[in-house]
TrEMBL record:
The protein's role, per its UniProt record: Necessary for efficient RNA polymerase transcription elongation past template-encoded arresting sites. The arresting sites in DNA have the property of trapping a certain fraction of elongating RNA polymerases that pass through, resulting in locked ternary complexes. Cleavage of the nascent transcript by cleavage factors such as GreA or GreB allows the resumption of elongation from the new 3'terminus. GreB releases sequences of up to 9 nucleotides in length.
The name this protein goes by in its record: Transcription elongation factor GreB
Keywords: DNA-binding, Elongation factor, Protein biosynthesis, Transcription, Transcription regulation
Pfam families in the cross-refs: GreA_GreB, GreA_GreB_N
Domain Transcription elongation factor GreA/GreB C-terminal stretches: 82-156
């Protein structure tokens, strides 16, 4: 399955801030630390030098990834026409067959977070929810078989546009 290129405005801003932090703060500090460690002499047994070079490669790899990813991501902002239906960025309260309630927010694959109950637009539950309204029932294939979920509530957080 391919990754979607959708992201919320706050998600894009978080990735952009991470890129700026790595490029303007973290990378110069690590570069200086590597330079200082190299000046101490024997680099083959210099742990600070070896660790610093490894950390620099990690930073550069993440900077390249973020730079390329931010170019292709498409910010999806809330629109009043979305009210009452599940679309990207929606919070959805679902009820399972046992009456248990769970809330999820549908976000881009770059910002999903199980700890926050943010699920990727590419997840089967999110795919099944798109376009549904309060009161609708969805069927989702799970490892334990089919699950039926009832859409109790849908709402959107209006993010700052700038």
């Amino acid at each position: 399955m391919s990754k979607s290129n959708y992201i919320t405005r706050s998600g894009w801003q978080a990735l952009d801030q991470e890129l700026k932090f790595l490029w303007k703060d973290e990378r110069p500090k690590v570069t200086q630390a590597v330079s200082d460690a190299a000046a101490l002499g024997d680099r083959s047994e210099n742990a600070e030098y070896i660790y610093g070079k490894r950390r620099l490669r990690e930073i550069d790899r993440r900077i390249r990834f973020l730079s390329k990813r931010l170019e292709v991501l498409q910010i999806v902002d809330y629109h009043p026409k979305q009210e009452g239906k599940v679309f990207f960025g929606a919070w959805v309260e679902l009820e399972n067959e046992e009456g248990e309630l769970k809330q999820y927010r549908i976000v881009g694959c770059d910002e999903f977070s199980p700890a926050k109950n943010w699920i990727s637009i590419d997840a089967p539950v999110a795919r099944a929810l798109i376009g549904k309204m309060e009161g609708d029932e969805i069927e989702v294939a799970t490892p334990n078989g089919k699950a039926f979920l009832y859409v109790n509530r849908i709402w959107y957080e209006k993010e700052n546009l700038y």
